[in-house]
Amino acid sequence: MDPKKLELESKLFAVLGQPTRLKLLYMLRDGEKCVCEITPAMKEDQSVVSRHLIKLRDMGLLEWRKEGVSVYYWIAEQRVFRLLELADDILREAALKQAREVAGAL
Amino acid sequence: MDPKKLELESKLFAVLGQPTRLKLLYMLRDGEKCVCEITPAMKEDQSVVSRHLIKLRDMGLLEWRKEGVSVYYWIAEQRVFRLLELADDILREAALKQAREVAGAL
DNA sequence: TTAATTTATGCATCATCGTGCATGAAAGCA
DNA sequence: TGCTTTCATGCACGATGATGCATAAATTAA
User: Fold this and answer.
1) Looking at CA atoms only, how far is residue B69 from chain A in angstroms?
2) Among A49, A100, B81, B97, which is most buried by a count of CB atoms within 10 Å?
3) What is the pLDDT of residue A92?
């Protein structure tokens, strides 16, 4: 397996491996929002929100646009949500499997 | 969005956000292997390999089996590879988009 | 020009993660 | 019973990551 590919893939997953960033993705699902709208909704410090948005943008998951003093972000890759849904499926199956193991041990 | 769900999803992605662990998944793609086979192939310390395997197992991505002193691991969820392929697609598209932006700036 | 608003960043701090070494635990063999 | 092999874990260390505060940079309004 190509080490460069492993590096890229793992970096993408690492960016998604943070609940605040996933929350940001879901929050932007229905369209663009500026940082000044996102920050109060997230109940996080503005600097925290800004940094997370930049990480998502650098990974190519978000697009952005500057309008006056405001900066708007939106989802660049709708397929990210396929990724999240697939993750849910896998987690669901893993939970079921674990439940079966526990039940089988009784 | 349910915080519990965000937590679970992000934990799954965090586990995948490490190149050594992705390499382990690819290595196990064609069937089970014991730690004693995996360790030399990975060129990593045995303790490192063991810990990564356990993290993948705890997330429900690997199954395991003990045979004598050996421990065998295998892929529990083939859908993980769908996840990896989707990640590749997204990364490819992001790279193309970035290339277009760079070209457009000239 | 001055003041206010919005976003990004420098800095310090704390927590988490990956790693290597040594050791413990379990199983099989002499 | 000892000895060996295989795997997991305790510990310490260095690196990375998230956070909050203060502030810089950019834009707009007064």
Assistant:
1) 23
2) A49
3) 96
Least Cα distance to B83 among A16, A45, A60 occurs for A16
Residue of B nearest to A84 (CA): B9
Q: Is the CB of B6 under 7 A from strand D?
A: no
CATH topology of domain B3-77: Arc Repressor Mutant, subunit A (1.10.10)
Q: Does B80 touch chain A (CB under 8 A)?
A: yes
The CA distance from A74 to A27, in Å, is 9
Question: Residues 6 or more apart from A84 whose CB is under 8 A from it?
Answer: A22, A25, B9
Mean pLDDT in consecutive groups of 10 residues from the start of chain B, 106 residues: 95 98 98 98 98 98 98 97 98 90 77
How many angstroms separate the CA of residue A43 from the nearest CA in chain B?
A: 13
Q: Which residue from B71, B69, B89 is spatially nearest to B28, judged by alpha carbons?
A: B71
Q: Which residue of B has its CA nearest to A4?
A: B19
Write down the pTM of the prediction. Answer: 0.95
Contacts of A13 in chain B (CB under 8 A): 13-14, 16-17, 22, 87
